[in-house]
Amino acid sequence: MVKISDVARHAGVAPSTVSYVLSGKRTISEDTRQRVQESIEALGYRPHAGARALASNRSNVLALMLPLRPGIHVPVVMQFAAAVVTAARAHEHDVLLLTQEEGADGLRRVAGSALADALIVMDVQLRDERIPLLRELNRPSVLLGFPAEPDGLTCVDLDFRAAGALSVRHLAELGHRCVDLVGSPPEVYERETGFAQRVAEGFAESAAAYGVASAVHPCEATPEAARAMAERLLALHPELTAVVVHNEPVVAPLVAAFRELGLRVPEDLSVVALCPDEIAAQAPLPITSIAIPADELGARAVTLLMSKLKGVPVSDATLLPPRLTIRASSAPRH
Amino acid sequence: MVKISDVARHAGVAPSTVSYVLSGKRTISEDTRQRVQESIEALGYRPHAGARALASNRSNVLALMLPLRPGIHVPVVMQFAAAVVTAARAHEHDVLLLTQEEGADGLRRVAGSALADALIVMDVQLRDERIPLLRELNRPSVLLGFPAEPDGLTCVDLDFRAAGALSVRHLAELGHRCVDLVGSPPEVYERETGFAQRVAEGFAESAAAYGVASAVHPCEATPEAARAMAERLLALHPELTAVVVHNEPVVAPLVAAFRELGLRVPEDLSVVALCPDEIAAQAPLPITSIAIPADELGARAVTLLMSKLKGVPVSDATLLPPRLTIRASSAPRH
DNA sequence: GTGAAAGCGCTAACAA
DNA sequence: TTGTTAGCGCTTTCAC
C-alpha cells in the first residue's frame, strides 16, 4: 500500500507537506504543490480512510437511515437515497446505509463508533424513539419530515400547506368554482398533527381566498372506499367540477369510479393528486399532480448537514416549494 | 469519548485484554471477561471504527454499488439493498452505498482508501468497465448477474434456465399441451448471451421433455407490440392455451390484449410471467409468476463475501432456484 | 513556505 | 491467562 511517507519521499518533501497539499489547510508554493501532485499521481496514492478518521476526528461519512416499511413508496425512497449519495460525493463524503429496523440503536452505534460524522433520518414519525437520541447525540443530523416537537432539530420537507394551496390555485385558474379534497384515512388526521392536516389547511385557505366552494373528505385507502367516495361526492355536490386527491392508493380507483359513474375526466371533472410522479404518470389516464421532490430533499438535506459540520448555523425548518406537473386529468371548466 | 484504556482501567486489566474480550481472539477467564463486559456497559464504550480499521486493516464495511438507471425495477433494487444491509449487520458489518454513476472509479476509491473491505456490484453488464478492475483489485467482491467472462469472479443470480423450465412445468402439469414464450426485445437476445437466452433454453428444453408444443417470440417492450403479439399468436396457434411472458412492461398489456380478443384468462388461456412480484401481484388480474428473489440474492451475496473475507474459497457461480407463485392467471386446461 | 514529531485509539506480536 | 508495547497512516501543533 502506498502511504503518505512514500509520496513525501518521492516528491522530496515532508509527509506533512503532502497532507497540506491534500487538505489545502496551509499555503504551499506552486512548485511544491506541483511536485507533490505528480508524485501522488505517479504512485497512485490514496489516503487511508481509517487513519484519516483517527487523526482528524472526521470520517467523511454520512449515515442515511431509510424506511423499508410497507406504505412508503419505494421509488421515492430510492430517489432520495440517490440524491443524498450524489450530493454527499460532491462534498467529498460517503454514505453509510442503515435500515429503519436498526432504530435508535443503529444511530447510536454509528455515531458512537465515529463511523459517521452526521446523520440523515428519513420517514420521521410524530413520536419517534430516535428523536430524543438525536437531540442528545453530539452529531449533526437532518430529519426528513417533522416530528411532534421539532424544536432544535433540523427538519426538511415538502411544504404541504403550499401544496394544498397550489392544487386549488391550479383548479381555480382553470375556472373551477367547486373543489373537494379527498384526503388521507381519518386516523391519519386524528393521530398525526402532520402533513395531512397541513395539506387540508392550505387547501381550505386557498379555496377561501379564491372564493371556491370546498370541502375535505377523509377517505380509507381502498378501492371500495374510493368508489363509495365518488358516489357520495356526486350526490352531495352535483355542481362539483374538480377534485384534489391526497391519498396514493385511491387515485386510480377514484378516477375509474368517476368514469364508471358517467363523468368524463377531465371534460366533466378535473383531478389533481398529491402523490409520487410514478403513480401519477403511470395511471391509465396520466394525472396532474404535485410530487414529493425527493431529489431536492436529498440534496438539501446534505447541504444542510455540510453547513452544520462546518459549524455554520442553519434554520430549523426547511420547506421546499411544491411543483405541479400538468398532465391529462385537469382542464378548464366548461 | 470513552476509549479502550478507560475501560481497561475501570476493569483493572490491560487494554489488550479488553480488545481480546471484544474480539474473542484469545481465551479469557470467565471472571475477567465478566468484569470487562460490565465496565464496557458501565462506561458505554464503543470502539473507534477508524482506529480499529487502522490497526486491524479491516474496516468491517462492505461497499454496495446500486443501479439507478431506468429499466431497472426499483422495488427489486431496494429489496436487494435491504437484504444486503440486514445480512451484513448480522455479520457485524456496515454497508457503504455507491451509485452506478461512480463506476469503476468509485470502486477503486473505496477499495484504495480502505473504506471498504469488500464489494458487491449489482446490475453487471456483459461488457462492464468494472469487471477488469474487480479482477485486479485485491478485495473480495461479488457480482449480481453474470458478465461475458465470469471466470475467476464470484457471481450470484437467479437460475434463469431453471426459471424457464419451471414455468413450462407448471403449465404442463395443468394439462397444457401448447405453450409459447413471449420474450424480451430481439436486441436483448442478439446483444446479450445472458439471462434472456437462458430462460428461452430452459423453456424449450422443458417443453421438449414434457412433450409440449412450444415456440419463442421476442417482443418489443411496448403495449402496441404486446397487442400485435397477441393477435399473431392466436393466428399462428389456434390451439394455444398457455403463454409464458419474460418481458415486464408487456405483461399487463398482453393480458389485456388477449381479453379484448375474446379470450378469458385463465379459463381459455393461462399466463405465467417472469417479473418482479410487485408487477405480477398488482396487475388488474394477479399473474402467476416467478420473481427475482432479491432477498435471497442479497443475503447470499453477503455470506459469500464473508467467506471470502475469511479466506474460505467459494464457488464462482451461485444460481438460486426459481420459485413460482401461483396467482389468478393460470388454471388447468379444459 | 516547510519540516519534525507527537499523538489519534486500537490490535497483535511478543513476553511473562 | 494476562500484560507490555510497537506500530497502523494520518493530521496538526510547534518550531524554524
SSE arrangement:
2 copies of one chain form a homodimer.
Chain A: H1 4-11, H2 15-23, H3 30-43, H4 49-56, E1 61-66, H5 74-90, E2 94-99, H6 103-112, E3 118-121, H7 130-136, E4 141-144, E5 155-158, H8 160-173, E6 178-182, H9 186-191, H10 195-210, E7 213-217, H11 223-236, E8 242-245, H12 251-260, E9 270-274, H13 277-282, E10 288-290, H14 294-310, E11 317-320, E12 324-325
Helix pairs in contact in A: 1-2, 1-3, 5-14, 6-7, 8-10, 11-12
Chain A binds a DNA duplex (16 and 16 nucleotides) through residues 1, 3-5, 13-17, 19-20, 23, 25-29, 32, 47-48, 50-57, 114.
Account of the protein in words:
In chain A, strands 2-1-3-4-5-11 form a 6-stranded parallel sheet, sandwiched between helices. In chain A, strands 7-6-8-9-10-12 form a 6-stranded mixed sheet. By secondary structure, chain A is α/β, with parallel strands linked by helices. Chain A has 14 helices and 12 strands. Chain A is elongated, with a radius of gyration of 26 Å. In chain A, strand 1, helix 5 and strand 2 form a beta-alpha-beta unit. The model of chain A has no long low-confidence stretch (mean pLDDT 95). Chain A has 3 domains: 4-56, 434 Repressor (Amino-terminal Domain), CATH 1.10.260; 61-158 and 294-320, Rossmann fold (3-Layer(aba) Sandwich); 160-292, Response regulator (Rossmann fold), CATH 3.40.50. Chains A and B meet through helix 4, helix 5, strand 2 and helix 6 of A and helix 4, helix 5, strand 2 and helix 6 of B. Chain A binds a DNA duplex (16 and 16 nucleotides) through residues 1, 3-5, 13-17, 19-20, 23, 25-29, 32, 47-48, 50-57, 114. Chains A, B: InterPro entries: HTH_LacI, LacI/GalR-like_sensor, Lambda_DNA-bd_dom_sf, Peripla_BP_I.
